[in-house]
């Protein structure tokens, strides 16, 4: 189980199959990472769905997430989504 994770985006990439960014999610203990192809325009709801399908399914619900102050992670929707899952969001 990944308890503490960090997240950030890699942007400015050439378009590949309609995606132009990568969402990087790293487990702080093992330093293992997942790289998810996303669109720069994907909002918090799209990211939440991907998070459940790709991360929670494989690693369970984390206890804490550290991210930058990206508007998607600072949004009320994202904070409420994580609060419902019992995850502490740190920026």
For the sheet with most strands, the description reads: 5 strands, mixed
Beta-strand percentage? 25-35%
How do the SSEs run, as a string of H and E?
EEEHEHHE
The number of helices is 3
State the secondary-structure class: alpha/beta
What is the β-strand count? 5
Distance between the termini: 22 Å
For the largest sheet, list the strands in their spatial order.
Answer: 3-2-1-4-5
Quickly give the CATH architecture: 2-Layer Sandwich
Identify the CATH homologous superfamily.
Ribonuclease H-like superfamily/Ribonuclease H
Percent of residues in helices: 25-40%
- Mean pLDDT metric: 94
Q: Indicate the low-confidence ranges by residue numbers.
A: none
What gyration radius follows from the Cα positions, in whole Å?
12 Å
Based on CA inertia axes, which overall geometry fits?
A: globular
What is CATH's topology name?
Nucleotidyltransferase, domain 5
How many domains comprise the coordinates? 1
CATH C-level category: Alpha Beta
3D structure, described in words:
- The structure is a single chain.
- Helix content is about 35%, strand content about 30%.
- By secondary structure, it is α/β, with parallel strands linked by helices.
Write a compact overview of the structure shown:
The protein is an alpha/beta fold and 91 residues long. Helix content is 33%, strand content 30%.
